[in-house]
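Hi Y.,

Following your request, here is the sequence exactly as I used it, all 656 residues.
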Amino acid sequence: MPRQTVIGNGNMLICLDENGEVRDLYYPHAGLENHVVGRTHRLGISINNEFYWFKDFNKYNSQSANTLKSTNIFTKPEEKIEVEFENIIYNEREIFVRKISIRNKDTYDKDIKLFFGQEFQIKENKYRNTGFYYPPKNVVIHYRGRRVFLVNILSNKKGIDDYTVGLYGYDNKEGSYTTAEKIDLPKNAVEHGPVDSVVAKNVKVKAGKTRTVYYFLIAGKTVDEVLQTNDFVLSKKPPHHMFNTTSNYWDAWRNKRPFNFVSLSKEAVKLFYRSLFVVRSHIDEKGGGVIASGDSTMYSFGKDSYAYVWARDGAYSSKALSHIGYFNLSRKIINFFAETISDKGFMLHKFEVDKSLGSSWHPWINEGKFKLPIQEDETAILINALWEYYQITKDIEFVEKNYDRLIKNPADFMCNYIDKALNLPQNSYDLWEENFRVYTYTTCTVIDALKKAADFSIILGKKIRGKRYQDMADNIQEGLMEHLYNKADGTFYKSVTVENGTITNKDKTADASTLYALWYFNVLSADSDIFIKYEKHVVPILRQSDGSFIRYEDDKYFKKGEAQSNPWIITTLWYLQLKIKRTTSFEQLKSVAREIDNLLILQTDSGVLPEQVDYLTRTEVSATPLTWSHACYIETIAMYLRKLDQFGIGETYLPK
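Below is the corresponding structure, written out as tokens. Let me know if you'd prefer a different format.
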């Protein structure tokens, strides 16, 4: 089940599903050590002694555009009751807070009992866990080693009214959550192994009135630490105070710049701010890595999740944040890659947020020969991200600090990692991570990176090296036009296979990344005859009736049966970016604003962007939310605002 909302503070990241249930809980990094891993922290309620699971209620979910908060609203018309969950993670400490407002819309009082289930797999393992009730503080604690979680509930300064601790998935035990259906919990005080727990709160809600309950979950590294934090909450920072100050903090953070969104709809602007919060929540505070997604749903379909740092996704996130003035986050991300890039100048597949090497399906051997298991565009795009940061900030000290690691070494690597007879890069894996070949997209990123490495080198007085990089970029651009451009029909190959000066396996597949890379990385002018002819060829193949774009023709990833390929968010935004780039008047730009509104149908009901949507149902598919999708939307809006500046339509407050 793809996630609907996310909340985080850089050290803790929580993903909730459409039922408002916690499905992913990362701590102490945003993206490392998922202590739930797709299990379910269930939510239940009894109304006048009649039990229900909230998942069976009518429900509405939303990701806030005003602060880093999510909301779940549950209604039961026949019971005339509405329950609203507002969810935050305290910005100063690792405390997950849920503000629950129970609204009795009936003409008589109701006895309510709220149930909160906890089903941990601490350190991503359900074994060697312990859960226990702690009477001195009336709390339930789960722990495994140095990962400890304390659960408490407050209403009118009173805590937990009922509890139990049990087992799930062991000895035919489904889980202690099933005891909630009997309303009175058995008060089992301790268990070890695959442990779950349930805590409950009794509330009487008068007719026509609202009662508020706070649930909070504290993360720490020792039992003493979480107990001290619990005391801190009870004595100094009660949940309502944490809730208000956190909301105020993130509201101030989003309003760092008073952007002027001329002609953009309110919904488009809301998605911009939601995107900003989603990207921020996926950035690890300690190391600066930005994970692709905290959604562990992918474990249900494959061997792994998206909770890794790809240089590509990270670079695009850094660029988007630079464009709108969040430079401290851009630097964090860039610094992460300065520490993870190899000494030889190339990026490997992906990384954990603690900077260790992530899992990979790329082999180190191809056709019996040693081959680097890299996606070369991930190396190239880092120079592009650093250049974008520098162009806006002029932070030459930061550039000089990272020159060797992120400019010289990668540029030297790219100069050497070529087929000299063809003036093309050697084979590497593509941005879709599927095949080992030479791609037009990758080649464009390499050309762009070497040009920018040349510019950086010249700025820093390294003219000989700068000329070498520029000459190599020119040579590769000639190689691209010679071998990746099909002069016969005016199209570009998606890829070719290169080996010892020989080209084989020319792939003519129409691919959105090919079109995008040619203009975005300034290999061709978007107004050139060659580009326009290719655009006219490829767009009808990739664009669907609602204006959305698939990745490439006959893309089978999550495709259902004979249906068409699924549209992706980033590929759809790429073409909108091209349209923005081409606008020459405010009237044309307003037309693009209307197309941005058309894109909104691809967001989830809660207002976040997935990786892709189902062709038939237009519902989210794969990792949700996807950081790259949101970063791409931020960059698209930033490009729109930049055009407003060019046309002199008011002050947009973009960094100059």
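The mean pLDDT is 96.

Thanks again,
Q.
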